[in-house]
């Protein structure tokens, strides 16, 4: 019950009239408490005193008394009087004679309990006021000591005399007077006392009056111990001062020898017993029965107790026979022996009463730990067992908790636990998991990297696979939600994740169509697809749970590049799990084994660059206190008792948790630490442990300890260590059968030796240091032979049984052995073929890093002349290795591979993949003209070359021919066309598609239209290819935007989408949708059609298509120019820049940044990105301007951004210069979604400049403006009134302004404003109002301009352009003046 002094005001008023707790003597309380408990049960008095209820109350009383004397001890300054202290314990000093009182202290102890009526009334009052206590209860949490409701009146030494060893009787008298009001005892109310509602106890003045104080308080400790003797025996034994006090403090040597012999005999019995039934266990009744039945042992103990009552193991024997906890008996014994100290050979005797107080507090707070007797039978038969507690990591745990709380509440954050092996990283993660679950729960997933792991993406995949298994069995409703969300958001593409996490199939259910193979030929970039799908998976499962999702990955020093890429994608990309603070990642690594270039350091640096905070939690060795806490907890002994052992262990292990544990296990094995029957607890041989030789590091210690294992067990451990930290039992069974060596039985023995664990169908080393120690038992020069032997054995079984998992494991083992383990050429070819198969399997789950490693190992096993002797094997290995190198951006190795293929391939068809990869390299590195030449040469070899000169006449001929063919074919017939199967034509279409991209990069607009026309003609003759839908979409764009045939163009844009669904592959869906959207954007309302680019982005992400980031660029740019709220547009731009920066697409990044700066400037934000070096995927860095100026088409877009910004902010010179550059490269501009916005803004700038320039320049600019106006007007008529009418009106108004036709201009400005409003272009409504304001201002009608400037001010603010709106204030303020 909480103390009233901490309660609320209302609670205090409710209990203010209640009397203080009732006092009584300790004897009265003992009798009353035992009677109360007997009335509730059938047990006798001996059982009652061992009950939890009685012990709980007695411990409260004992703690109150010890707490009171501790304060007296501090007042007297015992701890500071070191000379006196040393004199007491000086072995040369004569033994001190114990001086005692005539009465036991139990005569002077008052116990305070509530009366039953008062207790009931207080309980009612608490219930009435409970709703007022919410805030105060929080503060009460810090005041939960056993005597929180009763404060003993402490001894106050106000005497300034330095000799504080002399008590002042007058002050003790004052103490008694202060207590007088509490000591009144109404005999009539005795029966109403609630004896079990103990509020504390106090030692009265008479106990310490006139006591000698030269013993530094040892006499008080002993005397208090005698009182405890009586208290905890329930009055069974009244070990008063006379009974125990008239002996010398030092027992004779003969007596000590007798006692030692007795204890040795008892321990000999304990060590020699064979089973639980022969031991004294934790049951007090059974213990008494066993002890009383052993008459000789009982009599011997009783005789010894009479002879030497001061000896620790004898003086409390009656208490032990009652069945009291051993720790409590030892506490009383150590108190009674406190006056003996080290002189008497008692190393556990108390020095200060504060130690007694602290030990009692521990017993009260942790009764299951410190009051529970050791199970001697289990300890003897099973040995020393360690729990899962965490020691000495409170600060680090708190840091991790705070990091987690920030991550799920305010900001994205990841944490990494760092430290040497065996320092406790995994333990900290386990404690964090337990703590989080207690605090509200989470979805906690974990995995572990392994240096010898063979399965690609094993750590991450296994973590999510375990989640799938758990949610399927344990939470069916959530499993259904996850299944529905996956199918709706990802569709059939989710099937490719099933290979990585097989239990996902159980979530998706039997009705899900798994027939779609995970063929990476159907995607553009399988790795990008896999990363995207993992992000979507994390996003979806986090939304399906109320609790946050936590992912922990251990041993990140072994992290692989594929896992780094996936984690980076999860952290960086803007999924809702991150945005809504539903995901937290933390890991653990041995940072002392990692270089600066380690993939993990790269990952942490990368996520930090993208705004995700990283927190490093560094673990160091445990302190002495932490080691003592560990030893105390594991041995269930009070910290005071274990301190000496802990100090030795800390000195020998330097505080390494694993080292401490291993040494303690070794001490147990050598019988230097063992359960003692005589002491009924763990004991140890201090001197022998001090002399024990221990290596300086845990690795050597563990390695040496392995030598004591049976040879068969050690041999099996060596085999297991070759497979890493764990291995499936099924795999070990296969290996045992194939190599003919016993493995399963010896490994089970290793489990019994606590070297291994066994769970969930696998053997695992209890710590990675154990695995490393077993691995080091092999000679370095023989390790390759072991790996090769085991790998070949598993590889043959895998090939025979078509077991993919076994294949990957076996081939990884072979590769660990390396080429030097291969015995001949025949075996080398076998190994190369196995690596080829393993690489293909890795590619099937989109792990191109592992696949590349397999192919590389396969190539390294080929002998000289392999291109002649094993041509097909060599070509396939090199081609697939080149494909993986391209995916992994390993460009140096890629050039070597392609050169080999180009040099050794026997025909053109065999070179096509190498040519395709080379084109990609040339485009990516900026050497586009060389790529164009290579493509044209290849097309020529395929008899599909383009005309040498592409003129408008040639294009018209191709266009007319295509129209003629299509005119006689209905859409339904086109949709039923067969699939293209001619290999050379398939390749020709592939290279034509690449040529379209290359020409777009360099702005060769003249030749671009002929490419889709040629692809369509090939498709009409040879069937539809995966690129045919894109060609039809591009053809539709050409008809609409160049030919002005918007209706026909729109028809082919929609047809392309229909044809896309007929094509089996989804690899090119993103670019098909992108090109189709271009026409839709002109025909359909812009505000809705721009969302189609977001759809094409998502579809492209599913196939790893580079059009994903391009679609994202267009979508975010159109958000700005179509008048979306600026904060929405800015958020979209940030996502685009983050994605392009992550994928090192410097072109998209360079194109996005200027538009982003405009948006931020409009909003008045100053955090716009500055010009800096941008790294591309080839390791090259470029200045932003260099990138855009490299290609005229890009420069065209950048100049548009500058001229539109200058127009909006009325910066004439900047607008004129940017427009001049814009028109100079206009001929290079390709068909883009921004084209009509470019026409619109460049037309407005042209009319503005025309008004300000001299006549000759004015005519040039006026002509430019009229051309743009005419184009927009045509679009307004033939494409979409919604998108273009307001723009046409505004351009015409500016034209009439230049022509000084003011009346017409005024009408057109109003029409532009009205149309902008009707068609929801708020940004253009604001711009039209502002331009109208300038029109009236410049024509001398200032009053009329105010209305338009006011409207512009309002609309700019509505758009979110606060800074721009503020620039209009000068016009409005001036008009008011």
TrEMBL record:
Biased segments, Polar residues type: 85-94
One Pfam family per UniProt: AAA_16
Gene3D superfamilies per UniProt: P-loop containing nucleotide triphosphate hydrolases
Orc1-like AAA ATPase domain boundaries: 390-569
Compositionally biased tracts (Basic and acidic residues): 74-83
PANTHER family linked to this entry: HYBRID SIGNAL TRANSDUCTION HISTIDINE KINASE G
Record-given protein name: AAA ATPase
